[in-house]
Amino acid sequence: MWNRTKFIFPIVMIALCLAAGPGLAQQGPPQSPKAEHALPKAGDPWWKHAVIYEIYPRSFQDSNGDGVGDINGITSRLDYLRDLGIDAIWISPMYPSPLVDFGYDVSDYTAIDPLYGTLADFDRLVSEGKKRNIRVIMDFVPNHTSDQHSWFKESRSSRTNPKRDWYIWRDGKELGQPPNNWQSWFGHSAWQLDPATNQYYYHHFYTEQPDLNWRNPEVRKAMYDAMRFWFKRGAAGFRLDAVSRLFEDPNLHDDPILPGTNAYGDPNILHKYTDNLPEVHEALREMRRVADEFTGDPVLISEADEPNIIELTKMYGRKNDEIQLPMDFQIADVNKLSAPDFRKLLNEIDRNPAGGQPHYFFSNHDQPRQWDRYGDGVHNDQIAKLMAALLLTTRATPLMYYGEEIGMRTTDPVRKEDVQDPIGKIGWPLEKGRDGERTPMQWDASKDAGFSTAERPWLPVPPSSAEYNVQAESQDPGSILSFYKSLLALRRGAPALRDGKYLPLDQDNQYVLSFLRKTPGNGDSILVVLNMSAEPRTVRFALDVQGVKESSARPLIAVPKIAPESTVLTHFTVPAFGVFIGSVH
Question: What is the pTM (predicted TM-score) of this model?
Answer without folding.
Answer: 0.92
